[in-house]
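Q: Joint fold for the lines below.
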Amino acid sequence: MPRKKLIAANWKMYKTPDQAREFFRAFLPLVASHTRDEIAVCPPYVCLPAAVEAAKGSKVAIGGQNMYWEQEGAFTGEISAPMLLACGCTHVIIGHSERRQYFGETDDTVNKKLERALEAGLTPIVCVGEVIQEREAGLTEEVLRRQCNGAFRGISGEKAARLTVAYEPVWAIGTGRTATPELAAEAHQVIRHQAAKALGDELASKLRILYGGSVKPDNAKALMSQEEIDGALVGGASLDAKSFAGIVKY
Ligand code: PEP
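A: Joint structure:
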């Protein structure tokens, strides 16, 4: 059975609640009749209530951009899975390369967050991908294997069914450089292979693997036409309603 694609927006640290409302006012009518793919928007935490309210009654899901693995406690600045759920979130991005690069996330913290997100019933989007030096040194496969093994450690059973992975080559994020569809598909095969080893063939065959890295309305079709690419995680081009709708409707 073909996997239903997920097109997800990562707004990073952009937009206030008012700007989020404005986005949904413009965006929802553009995708109102779109049923082919699932759509999710991951705004900054302070915009979550506004986004959930604005998207109510539509098919657009809302997600967080990060979470901590504890339920609650003295963890200043952090937010937990139950808090995301209580806000109306269904999705959460885990281990984005910007979090790995600037906020010390490791394969180990990604694993803890993933386990907790799945337990909580959220749909996690786990990000993996190599930096340019690793690609140029021929290490892409090794890096993806390490990141996937680290993320999937101890994960099993039915709850893993919601797991989603995003392949995001770091050199393509926010740079305007996109992986060719063939190159992305190759990386996706490596990820699926690791998923099969860690989670079993059946789960791996159903696993959605998104591509992220400078996806735009004009390159979305070529990327999404690859059988191995099950959707997109979109940063910069998701901030504008028309541009994100253009990607959704590639
Ligand atoms: C991202 O932030 O996940 C991303 C893919 O960004 P961009 O689309 O801007 O490259």
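Q: Anything notable?
A: The two ends are 21 Å apart (CA to CA). The longest strand covers residues 123-128.
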